[in-house]
Amino acid sequence: MAAAGGEGPARAEGEGATGGFPSLPAQEEEPGRGQLFSTVVDAFLEKLVAAGSYQRFANCYHRFYKLQPEMTRSIYDQFISQLQTSIQEEIHEIKKEGNLEELFASMDRIVEEAKNRKEPAWRPSGIPEEDIHSAMVPYLLKHQTYLRRALKEKEEENRKLAESVLAGRERISEMQQQIQNRKQAWQAISKEQRELIMAFQEPE
């Protein structure tokens, strides 16, 4: 009984909290393409500094180094610092102008979506006619839908324009009729005035 009791704690210490099996190490996230790009740039700068070592710099300016070793070291440090800063600024401008950060993020999203996709990826069948048909038909159908929608919108726009033109013509016709009616009324009044004047001017 004592031996059985002693085995319990020893086994419990070796077992994990998930039913006696040791816990697996957490899988590390893969770095994104933007992070990989930055890592490559950093590695390039490190190799650049290693290639342009202080010893080589001193050998190139050997006489000056013999006279002013501390000054030579200071000049070298400033040169390397300015070179690194200049390269980093140039790369930053390239990334900004090319919108590389957004492109890298978009590529990462595409890769993640592809991992979760259950259906198999498209592969050419080996028959060019069928491959072109399968690739072009969805595009043509989508373009056809767009054209139909654009045609419907244009027809609706033309219908409203025709209604507006027709309403304008009706208003013009009404105004012409009003002008004609007023003209006739003025002509009638003018005729009556002339007749009245002539009636007063008749000899007694």
Quick tags:
single chain; 204 residues; mainly alpha; 81% helix; disordered N terminus
Q: Quick gist of this model?
A:
This protein is 81% helix and 0% strand.
Task: Provide a descriptive summary of the structure in words.
By secondary structure, the protein is mainly alpha-helical. It is built from 7 helices and no strands. The protein has helices at residues 2-14, 33-51, 54-60, 62-67, 69-97, 100-116, 128-201. Mean pLDDT is 78; it is low at 1-22.
Which term fits the overall shape?
elongated
The percent range for strand residues is under 5%
For the biggest sheet, the summary is: none
Order of helices and strands: HHHHHHH
What is the residue-averaged pLDDT? 78
What distance lies between the first and last C-alpha atoms, to the nearest angstrom?
Answer: 163 Å
SSE topology sketch:
Blueprint lengths: L1 H13 L18 H19 L2 H7 L1 H6 L1 H29 L2 H17 L11 H74 L3
